[in-house]
Amino acid sequence: MLKYLLPVLFCSIPVWSCSSIDAAPDVASASMLAETAKPSGQTGGETITEIIGKDLVHPTLSPDGKFLAYAEVIVENKRENTAVRILNLATNQNFLLISPQVAAKYKTYSSYVSSMDWNQADRLAVTISDGDVGSAILTFQPFQKKLLSVRYEEAMEFSPADEKLRKRIWAQFPQVQSEELNLALLHHRRLETRDTVLMAGELLRKEKNLWLLDFQKRSIKSLFKATDPLAKATIASSKVASNGTFLLILDTSDDRRFLVIYKDGQIQKRQPLGGLKGRPEILHAAHNKIWIMSYVYNTYEEGNNPLYIWDNGELRQATDYDRLYAVHVNRQGTRIAYCYWIDGKRRITVKELL
Question: Is residue 23 over pLDDT 70?
Fold first, then answer.
């Protein structure tokens, strides 16, 4: 089974939901976007911390950027296990949040962290895969080291969030086709806010499109005309701004990729991203720039998963590290954590975000 982790390591010099962005970028015209990314230089400034020595993954900064959670990859008798630590970036002190003994309780064949979400200061969600088809989602009050809840999920089944959304949609939009809604929930990414959800599928009239469901207005509409190539696109990555602006990376059926900006009830901009390969993830957006990670390699394949900066219509590749594994930007956009390969192991460096 291929494991898609996001990476994380120590030496002194700190899920599915969309986090809000302080300001949506001012998008330039489509003609400005380069099909091939150009080097753009450094994205990180002053070094805060370097973590080295062990093989660490999933660097996850707290919303204020003052703490860093990370997972350690532990191999025992050819089976993978894990541990999770939290580092105070001001004092360089760390503490153990999940021990290998606790993590091993959730294994079928192995235990490894598949994701971490720290979207609220006092809530950290750690997803531990069992090495088969199941996962345990552990939610903590991290600084009290208090485990609040454990939820179990299996692949290809509805999560509690899926089931809650499905019931909400059926209650307000009975015209939505139930079979197509189930398929959309199970197989497609979506963008969800308190009052809206954006989904791909054939929710109405057997017409494939991106559908915006507004629970407050009790309205449902398609984003694109039926003849538009983007009507049959799927959401590869998304981010929602605090002012309601949607940032979308869409993949079309003919293997093209677009950046779409949706604001005030209409498409503001759409631009091709021909130079962006792999599995994209929108990390952060501010000051007319969007930080996009592209996962080209699988978990244990050494190589460079490039970081791109979309800057006023031009896609550029960052040059901070040449063998990146993963990157995380804190919610406030002040710090950036890099995870990268050196000598067969992954280490972490945290810097101020330029």
Answer: no
